[in-house]
Amino acid sequence: MYSTSYLLFQSLTAVALGDALGLPIQFEKRENLLENPVDTMKPSAAFNLPQGTWSDDTSLSIASLLSLAMGFNLHDLMTRYSQWYHFGEYTPFGKSFGVGKTTAEAISRFDKGIPPEKCGGIGEMDNGNGALMRMMPLAFFILTDHQNYQFNDEVAQTIHEYTETTHRHPRSLVASGILTNVIIRIIQNPNKYAMLRAVNEALDYYKGKDAFAAQTPYFKQLGDASFLRQPSANIQASPYVVDTLNTSFWCLMNSEQYFVAVKRAVNFGSDADTIGSITSMLASLLYAPVTFPVNWLRDLKGRDQIRVAVSSALISNYF
């Protein structure tokens, strides 16, 4: 297991790289990308931003990391999300963009005085991937606090409370639990089958909980190697939490290098920035130590913000 300082900096950089690579082709059709796959940073025409610019995935990850560096405080967490949304904090150019509907509505509720743990959307249509994109800082926070880590009630409650600030549907809570457990387990043991075991470990926990058992069939395929080995044409990429995890895990299981996994992820199109960001983060841990493509790092904006956020976390008592 590599040092926390190395892995945290590497994984936050990976979040930004996958985000920035995918942003310009967000919602592009997959068939178009099959003919002209993307593997270099490009400007974002939709938002009139230069190549290498990252979006809400990275901004919310930075905001979350800086909040957790002060301890687990949901009010502070949501205050930082509100500052990002309204004032462009934690962005390369001082403006937020591309925020998901469920996250925007959660921030609006917080601004009106709703308690942070009640801000998240609870409807069936509130199962987008806006919480998944910010799970990485929490995984490092939990692992630091639990030297003999097990996916248990205490850990699950922490993940759920963190997720509920924007997404409160039980399916989103299970998705966050699965992803966070996978991040932690591949930090501890970076191989693909540890990833599959981590999925099944989380699912076994949720099957025993009345509030979540009905959600587990949506995710059972994630622990099945045969599902993850099927042709890419059978994988549906979208912002839906189930589709996002299916796509990201498929890319990891069908790649042997960081670069290949991330390229596969963004070229699914659809929600390319978030799927690319999550895949990039996981691949950076799975294949550690990773050498990022030089041209990707060269074009990446806001690298100093990433360094400062990681440095702030590492001098705290929580990482």
Automatic annotation (TrEMBL):
Domain of life: Bacteria
Tagged with keyword Metal-binding: yes
Cofactor dependence: Mg(2+)
Listed GO MF terms: hydrolase activity; metal ion binding
Residues the record lists as binding Mg(2+): 55-57, 271, 273-274
Any coiled-coil regions, as ranges: none
Name of one Pfam family that matches: ADP_ribosyl_GH
Protein name, UniProt field: ADP-ribosylglycohydrolase
